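Lab notebook page, bench 4
Experiment: in silico fold of construct C2
Operator: M.H.
Input chain length: 408 residues
Purpose: comparison with the prior construct
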Amino acid sequence: MTEEDNDRPRGVVPDDAESSAASPPAAGAGWPSSPPDAPPGSLPSVPSLPAATRRRRWWPWAIFIVLAAAIAIASRWNLNYYAVTPGTAQSVQQFITVPTDKGHPVTHPVLLTDVEIGRVTALDYLFYKLQSNVTLEQVDSVTGGTAPSQLTAQGNLEMSQAEVDAKVSALRRLGYKVTATPSGAVIAGTYPGTPAYPVLNVGDVVSAVDGTPTLTADALISTLRQYHAGQTIVLTVRKGGTAPPAPESITLKNTTINIGESKPVTLDLGIEVEDQVDYGFPFPVHINVTNIGGPSAGLAMTLGVIDALTSGSLTGGHTVAATGTMDSQGNVGPIGGVPQKTIAVENAGASIFLVPLQQYQGAMSKDRPGLKIYPVTTLNQVLADLKANGGVVPPAHVTSGRSPTSSG
């Protein structure tokens, strides 16, 4: 714009502009003509947009709809992976109840830790691959061939067994007498397509085959070897482990299945079994861990029971976390997801982390300054490590019938 343009009064149109406005271009010169019968001074009509232009306006919507459909499909398309991500670390003491006359206050409770496991969809995959604290595991390596529909029941059964074993190992370490009576073989899993799958559920207990008692898992397997495909057997089953014994008929059939990543195997019945043992305790101890499945809290629960039944601080005032299975004999066993659990206990401010020997390197892969990680194999070793860090540890084999005291 020139200075002349700036100085021109507003609202005054140059003569040449008026001339232009008064005489629109002739038809055919790019300006549409008015209809012959249009009133004088009316604006010329504007033709509708060409069809190609209208179609171009639909393209953004078409692309949006296709993307939305692709996202919806990808979010429901499960890949052959589970994602293992860090969970939480929380006090085990909130889940433990002991008799008032035998209990002691716990000021620095042991932390149990868990991981979160979920199926990976096509939409999740790239996101998880970019996360350094997430591990993608093949489905078979997580399930071991067990039907996904049984995983929750299996996790609940393992937690229930871990709670019992934790009480047994803790009380025996404190010198209390705990009796054990074999009562059958508990179903830990069945395989799709096998004769057992529609009849037996995780948690059912088998105590006899055709009237022959089978009070351990080995006894059941040994007895079943006497039968072959095509025969019908009658199992004595306590549904859910608590119902009255009742007969269940099953016809054996050769069924070839895949178990985990191993070669296909042929089974006549198709069950996984473990020992079912009825324990007699000197007094009631209740452990009820909620919203967590699996056996990996066994070590933490054992320490929690010992801490609740003895005076002094078992952890020596430190924030101690623990993971690992615990059997009734006081042995610590391996578990999964230790790298993710290490992150969880570090986030919770733990200064000591007790892990099974087999997973020590996995825990060290996520080690941060300020966290001591101890590889352990037995309850006695765990207690020795706590004592070395100032924990007040009860002596072994205290006389039964009295609430034990602790010694440093």
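Observations: The longest helix spans residues 51-76. Residues 247 and 372 are 53 Å apart (CA to CA).
Next step: discuss at group meeting.
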